[in-house]
Amino acid sequence: MEMAEYFERTLDKYAGAFDIYRNYSINQRQYPAYGYFFSLGEKYVLSRKANLWSIRSYEHVLFLQEETVTGKLLDELDSVLTEHMEPQMVRKGEKYPEKDHMYSYLTFVILCRKSPAQEVIRRIGHYKYERSYLMNFRGHSEGHLICVDLEQEKVYTNRAASGMKKMFEKTFRDNRKSRIGNADAFEQVG
Questions:
Q1: By the 8 A CB rule, do 58 and 91 touch?
Q2: 3-state class of 75 per DSSP?
Q3: How high does pLDDT run on average in the chain?
Q4: Measured CA distances, 35 to 14, 26, 61, 142 (Å)
């Protein structure tokens, strides 16, 4: 599957719940896209003025298109997460996130043309970033790492992002089905 096609299909899936910004820049690095998700949950009695509780949930997704994933790239992404995403996107420069913050997922989706080395795949699987704020009274942040290997049509994730693996694998399955469906249509016409 071509990278551009996979990328567009992925953005289409995210666009249902995320605000998508193309050509997003952080520290002089250009990312093909950035996705932002926000959800507010509230419980109140009779009117909104009698609010019992509120929770705010976020996800920030940076999309990358690379030839392959290297250890150097993983180090760079960890640096972006710890030095920019967490302090600026989660805490907004403050000591803690806002009052009703429940969680923020900080996600990297890396599309690569060539399969990463086994050591890099192992590093992706073992990647972990977690930070709690005021013993979780102000919620927590979690790092998600997803690598889509277009050469082998495989998806590698860290443990925190493992629940998202099926969505990315489904794009490969859908593409195979459409290729088979198109081949059947041509055979029937001929």
A1: no
A2: helix
A3: 92
A4: 8, 14, 5, 16
User: Model pTM?
Assistant: 0.90
Cα angle, residue 154 at apex, residues 153 and 158 outer, rounded to 5°: 155
With CA atoms as reference, report the closest residue to 104 among 45, 144, 67: 144
* Torsion angle (degrees, nearest 10) of CA 1, 3, 143, 162: -10
Which long-range contacts link 84-93 to residues 24+ away (Cβ below 8 Å)?
84/26, 84/27, 85/26, 85/60, 86/131, 86/141, 89/58, 89/60, 90/58, 90/60, 90/141, 91/133
pLDDT digits (tens, 9 = 90+) for 34-62: 999 999 988 888 777 777 778 999 999 99
Question: Which pLDDT belongs to residue 23?
Answer: 97
Instruction: List phi, psi (to 5°) of 8.
Output: -65, -40
Give the count of beta carbons closer than 10 Å to the beta carbon of residue 115.
18
